[in-house]
Amino acid sequence: MNTKVYLDNAATTPVEEEVINAMVEAMRLNYGNPSSTHSAGQEAKALIEGVRRNVARYLNVQPGEIIFTSCGTESNNLIIKSCVTHLGVERIISSPLEHKCVAEAVRDAKVRKGCEVVYLRPDHNGDISLQQLEEALQASDKKTLVSLMHANNEIGNILDIEKVGEICKKYGAYFHSDTVQTIGHLDLDFSKINIDFASCSAHKFHGPKGVGFAYIRKTSRIKPVILGGAQERELRAGTENVSGIVGLGKALDLCMTNLDRYANHMKEIKSYTAQKLRETIPGIKFNGHSEDLEKSLYTVLSALLPFKNPLIGLQLDMKGIAISQGSACSSGAAKPSMVMMMILQDDELENTTPLRISFSHHTTKADIDYFVEALQEIYQTSAIEKTNV
Ligand code: PLP
Q: Which segments constitute the Aminotransferase class V domain (predicted)?
């Protein structure tokens, strides 16, 4: 790989050595099918159950409420589709800022199942109004699912899910939060939050790709979307990804054990990056609450560069820097992302370039210096081109 500096950790993170080692060991030694009744199968099953107990302990929930899946996308689909098909949900309240996997599942519920969908309109900071949520809940007696992400993957804004949970409880609505960007990075105690469903993806916190889980509150009576076996408490058929689950468990262990140290490091790196960018690129702005360490994820800094350059990702890549303009799913697209369209004015969309800089505990100040220098070169060229027009 020619990448010298990796600043796309919101898209995916490098897998930790300890995680790789644990996975290789599981592949080598625990190849039994967890559904087999012989010892080889039962050893593999025991590994999975051990990870389930650990995950449940970190979130302060019951092990039976953790359902391993193939990814965050599958977890969100399972939850939304089953709510509509099996729990009698006729109405979904969501927002236009959701990840595509939630947005598409909600749209599908509307188009194919006739579900009513209400989108809460974010303000120019990307904030969802809790008053608007309450009004939307008051407006109908239909069985409702509220689906609002915990932290936005493009701008990093964090939603107060405790408050959202309280409001949902008051109106008897189910509450689902896409927690893909927060599990592994924040200390979450679901026993203190009125949340029914959440999702997780291991590759967002230095685990492998292709494994995640859905948190499903025991009392919710969800049914499977993938049929064909009794695995995962009959909620997700298919032979389990044993080594992937082991990798997820190891990655979560490492993140939770080192949570404060990692968080402090990334907070410092994020502030350093914002300060360097301000010094180097006059007129730069930061989207949403991106610069506020309390209101936004410390892993994400969403910048708005004061010039138009749709090729910036490519130009930075040519200098050995891996970075996205928005979410991995929307970067490369000709149109601005839905998130940017929602929070930026027309003239900003016309004359600026969003850049999502996302960090891990491996990111160093030297990485940031290299990136800022490369960006400055691009900025100067853009400025010269602009004056020559
Ligand atoms: N939800 C959010 C907020 C994400 O950032 C992502 C990944 O980009 C997903 C869901 C999808 O997760 P996965 O890549 O595991 O399908």
A: 5-371
Strands 91-94 and 144-147: parallel
- Residue 180 Cα to ligand 1 midpoint, Å, equals 6
Mutate to test the pocket of ligand 1, among 68, 69, 70, 73 (most ligand atoms within 8 A of CB): 73
Q: Which residues contact 290 (CB under 8 A, 6 or more apart)?
A: 155, 156, 157, 296, 300, 301, 302, 303
- For residue 289 and ligand 1, the question of a CB distance below 6 A is answered with no
Question: In the chain, pLDDT over 90 holds for what percent of residues?
Answer: 93
Place of tokens 């994020």: 270
Q: Give the mean pLDDT of the chain.
A: 95
- At 303, which helix (H) or strand (E)? strand 300-305
- Determine how β-strand 116-119 pairs with β-strand 144-147: unpaired
The residues annotated with a catalytic role in the active site are 329
Would the CB of 178 count as within 6 Å of ligand 1?
Answer: yes
Ligand 1 centre to CA of 217 (Å) is 21
> What number of other Cβ atoms are within 10 A of residue 288's Cβ?
25
Half-sphere exposure of 93 (CA within 13 A, CB side): 28
First to last CA, the chain: 37
Q: Full-prediction pTM beyond 0.90? A: yes
| Domains and their CATH numbers in the chain | 5-13+259-388 (3.90.1150.10), 17-257 (3.40.640.10)
Minimal CA–CA distance to 155: which of 128, 125, 119?
Answer: 125
pLDDT band, residue 389 (cuts 50/70/90): very low
| Distance (Å, whole) CA 251 – CA 203 | 9
In terms of Cα–Cα distance, which of 28, 62, 341 is closest to 219? 62
Residues 235 and 224: beta-carbon distance below 8 Å: yes
Gyration radius of the chain over CA positions? 22
365-388 vs 259-280: helix crossing angle, rounded to 10: 30
**Residue nearest to ligand 1 atom 10, measured at CA:** 72
